[in-house]
Amino acid sequence: MTADPLAPLDLAFWNIESAGHPMHLAALGVFTAGSPSAAAHAADLLAARAAAVPGLRMRIRDTWEPLGLRRSLSALSRPWPATGEPLTAALRRPLASAVRRSLAFGGATREPDPGFDPLNHVRLHPATADFHAAAGALMGHPLERTRPPWEAHVLPGEDGARFAVLFKFHHALADGLRALTLAAALMDPMDLPTPRPRPAEPPRGLVPDVREVPGLVREALADAGRALDIGAAVARSTLDMRSSPALTCAPSGTRRTAGVVVDLDDVHRIRKSAGGTVNDVLIAVVAGALRRWLDERGDGSDGVAPRALVPVSRRRPRTAHPQGNRLSGYLIQLPVDERDPLARLTRVRTAMDRNKEAGPHRGAGAVALLAEHVPPLGHRLGGPLLGQAARLWFDVLVTSVPLPGFGLRLGGDPLGAVFPLAPLAPGHSLAVAVSTYRGRVHYGLVADGAAVEDLDRLARAVTEEVSALTVACDH
């Protein structure tokens, strides 16, 4: 394992984090226990297997060496190349190294932790009757930034029939797909398809080939155009703000979580009857649940259409090196103000179709792409300000995390349910993540513990909205 610089979006997630707003994503997996000692056995297995997973031994270290002077001098002190190699080629290697290092000024690298101890990352907790209550308390604690930024918490059930594992991964270490890969590596061994390796990139010199200059100029102009489009779209999105005070809050530093399980067959019935995609239905369910929740708590839903950020993965499937966040996003207004469930679904479908037609590289939801145009020092200095600006950009996160279609096991005990849990942006009171696993849809809700004391009521509203859509489609 070697050190590598954090990708721009990884660096943004690393610097946005604060003590009151941890930037880790998580998943709460619930297993059927085959014996009273299943939870303890699972903790032992996780600790033993973690040592063999290279990605779990990587820590993130800040880099502050200006100009890479020490590295370039050490490179120049090496013996000269074999006779016959041009002098310019011999000099280009250390100079290129120095330039790359200077660009990392104020950045961070992902590198092996020489003192890695899996026992620092896998913890067995006392038995609990409420996995989500325990997960909520753990979600409020930031990960240790001086060690590999991940944890696994094993939660035995009081009834002895189940146990749960809460996996936490810092967003700078992994996005949803990468976190899935790392967590799956800790499950029981199974035969998986071999990922296709990425094609090798040709080596680049310090100065680009003259023949490449027109293409580079066109690419730079296109990037600038996209950045302007995104900025203008963000500005327009703030002109028609119709959110609810229930979705914003002063941070308390505490978290609550809740989970909902929905039959995937019901979702497919709604999709086939009303049109659209499965994702359209899942987003429309969130809109309807918010309407029910706001009305019941007395906040009112009329005239409310909060902006939802729907992340979009730009990662190519089955790549061998899924390092680094590769995300864009769509921004839509959730039709909470619409009374009819089918009309809500139609409005969601129309908005998502419009986003897809424009593509994930333009529009207000694609702000994450701007991270690639910010130098590392800009991320360092602007990260806290960017985090505080999240509430001006969107009101609630609604993200989908893919899971494998096959069943997972840990120590022979089957994984029955898995609830994805998204990080909560500063100023926001709620984040929603959705996964499909073995014929069921799992909604994971994360909320500020002080602002949303009735998160269980919102969870029930999700189930009620699916029922309402099913009934509406049957008539």
UniProtKB/TrEMBL annotation:
Catalytic activity: an acyl-CoA + a 1,2-diacyl-sn-glycerol = a triacyl-sn-glycerol + CoA
Annotated protein name in UniProt: Diacylglycerol O-acyltransferase
A Pfam entry, by short name: WS_DGAT_cat
EC number(s) recorded for this UniProt protein: 2.3.1.20
Domain O-acyltransferase WSD1-like N-terminal, first and last residues per copy: 6-66, 98-281
Presence of the UniProt keyword Coiled coil in the record: no
Pathway noted in the entry: Glycerolipid metabolism; triacylglycerol biosynthesis; Lipid metabolism
